[in-house]
TrEMBL record:
<keyword id="KW-0732">Signal</keyword>
<feature type="signal peptide">
    <location>
        <begin position="1"/>
        <end position="23"/>
    </location>
</feature>
<keyword id="KW-1003">Cell membrane</keyword>
<dbReference type="Pfam" id="PF01547">
    <property type="entry name" value="SBP_bac_1"/>
</dbReference>
<protein>
    <submittedName>
        <fullName>ABC transporter substrate-binding protein</fullName>
    </submittedName>
</protein>
<keyword id="KW-0449">Lipoprotein</keyword>
<keyword id="KW-0472">Membrane</keyword>
<feature type="compositionally biased region" description="Low complexity">
    <location>
        <begin position="30"/>
        <end position="51"/>
    </location>
</feature>
<dbReference type="InterPro" id="IPR006059">
    <property type="entry name" value="SBP"/>
</dbReference>
<keyword id="KW-0564">Palmitate</keyword>
<dbReference type="InterPro" id="IPR050490">
    <property type="entry name" value="Bact_solute-bd_prot1"/>
</dbReference>
<feature type="region of interest" description="Disordered">
    <location>
        <begin position="30"/>
        <end position="56"/>
    </location>
</feature>
Length: 519
């Protein structure tokens, strides 16, 4: 067909279409006129009334920590915007330096409308500002949003400040921590998963001294740790020794964990590991990224703390360097008394706040909450957590199976995954279809951990002094703990630092917590 013929045909089709459309309207008007239940005037107006304009997308700026190397592209964001009728601006900042950015943005009044914190510690840092009225209270509004109203009350209660709710939470299993270890090394050396803390120490020693990688060079270490007492190895091992979870009862009174003998046992454990050369010597200055790289390069055999569910990512990176490597997970490590224990989080690992400096009124706040309400639908939650079906994951047996292209998931999805509100029980997203044996084992152990879980008795309690000084005072204990493990402080020196903690406000914290604990 020539271009001229095609043009004539197109013109004829358009003419017929317009005539048909006019005829259709006339027929509709005629039908409306014949309707005995309605007047002609009313239906004519209805027929000519212009269609309502679509609602303008809600513009939202969001600040959150980034746990990957590179900022994700807009692949997921674009799809989320379509589903939620929003225009989103994500401000990603590296997790390792996020607290600094959070503090500087707060100090300059430049926090965006939606501000993710980093963890429970940064939440505590913000409590004073929350009490000072610098963030919106959202508790009374949740009933207006059917999906947000599904969030677990017991977890929401753990995030309240002075009995009021200001936050949405990112849900996490209560006790995911444990060991990810080189099972191929253990098998080669004839070692079973450590049943107790003595066997854990012995495994670290063997992984260092007995050439588990078989290259004839003494170039491996047992434990790799990072500069984090809570989410690194220290707190997990401490719970195995029987240390309370932040606070415990002593003589009928609440007392901080570092006043218990089991805390000293844990410090001695790591001091001995370091002195023996069975862990990285500079762990107090090692970032999470560097610790992970040391493990995935094939130089370390035990990665403790954090989440056993990280085994998928660690395995992916490790087998690039050591194709025959095999990882497994373990968490049932008994203390010297033969008992099992696992510290538990209060059901969340992060929260979201809404600064009054960025959200001008309640009407704007409700529009932002409407976005989070849509995030808690299965369609949006799956998109943000798993990615695009067929590209980043497939569905098998009603569960999500990530694609083999782990780099694609890491690059495009991970940044958004860490921001999803609630958990699968409340937002309806798919659970994971796990295929890696060590990950399957990890999911079983997460359930076992809860059975011996130890809660923080102060999680839902409040102390004015802790809110204002707690993080600052904790640095005294953190520094003293590292110095003890490095051999720079003895027991008397550590106890002197505890007295320093008490004199600068710690004694008041103890008093305030006990006052509300007894009620």
């Amino acid at each position: 067909m020539t271009k001229k013929s095609f043009t004539l045909l197109l013109s004829s089709l358009l003419t017929l279409s317009m005539l048909s459309a006019c005829g259709g309207n006339n027929n509709n008007e005629a039908a409306a006129t014949k309707d005995p239940g309605a007047s002609t005037g009313t239906n004519t107006a209805a027929a000519t009334e212009p269609a309502a304009e679509p609602e303008k997308p809600t513009e939202i700026k969001i600040m959150l920590p980034l746990n990957t190397t590179d900022t994700p592209p807009d692949t997921i964001k674009t799809e989320v915007e379509k589903l939620t009728n929003t225009k989103l601006t994500y401000q990603f900042f590296p997790a390792d330096t996020y607290e600094e950015k959070l503090n500087s943005s707060f100090a300059t009044g430049s926090l965006p409308q939606v501000t993710y914190l980093k963890n429970q510690t940064t939440f505590l840092q913000m409590k004073e500002a929350i009490k000072d009225g610098q963030f919106w209270e959202i508790g009374p509004l949740l009933s207006e949003f059917p999906n947000l109203n599904k969030l677990k009350p017991e977890i929401l209660n753990n995030t309240k400040v002075d009995g009021k709710l200001y936050t949405l939470y990112i849900g996490r299993p209560l006790a995911r921590q444990g060991i990810i270890y080189r099972k191929d090394w253990a098998d080669k050396l004839g070692l079973a998963a450590p049943a107790n803390t003595d066997e854990l120490f012995a495994m670290a020693k063997a992984f260092t001294e007995q050439d588990p990688d078989g290259n004839g060079v003494k170039d491996t270490i047992g434990v790799v740790d990072r500069n984090e007492l809570v989410y690194g190895a220290f707190k997990t091992v401490s719970s195995w020794f029987g240390t309370p979870n932040n606070w415990g009862e002593k003589d009928g009174q609440l007392a901080p964990e570092f006043t218990f003998p089991q805390y000293f046992d844990t410090m001695d454990f790591f001091k001995n590991l370091r002195d023996g050369g069975y862990m990285n010597q500079d762990f107090a200055a090692t970032s999470k990224t560097d610790a992970v790289n040391m493990f995935t390069s094939g130089k370390a055999g035990l990665y403790i703390g954090g989440s056993m569910q990280d085994i998928d990512t660690l395995n992916k990176d490790l087998i690039k360097n050591v194709p025959d490597a095999v990882l497994d997970t373990h968490s049932m490590v008994a203390g010297p008394d033969g008992k099992f224990a696992q510290w538990m989080i209060p059901g969340y690992n992060n929260v979201v706040l809404f600064p009054k400096s960025a959200v001008k009124d309640e009407a704007e706040l409700k529009k932002i909450l409407a976005f989070f309400d849509k995030m808690m639908t299965p369609e949006v939650a799956n998109l943000m957590y798993w990615g695009i079906e067929g590209t980043h994951y497939t569905v098998e047996d009603g569960k999500a199976k990530p694609t083999d292209n782990k780099e694609l998931i890491e690059r495009e999805v991970k940044g958004f995954k860490d921001s999803v509100i609630g958990e699968y029980e409340t937002n309806g997203m798919y659970q994971s279809l796990n295929v890696l044996p060590g990950r399957i084992h990890a999911e079983e152990l997460v359930l076992e951990n809860v059975k011996v879980g130890v809660a923080d008795p102060t999680a839902a309690l409040d102390s004015a002094t802790y809110t204002s000084k707690g993080v600052e005072l904790q640095q005294i204990i953190t520094d003293a703990t590292y110095k003890y493990m490095y051999g720079q402080l003895d027991k008397a020196g550590f106890e002197k630092e505890v007295e320093n903690w008490k004199s600068r406000g710690g004694a008041q914290i103890i008093e305030e917590y006990n006052a509300v604990y007894k009620k």
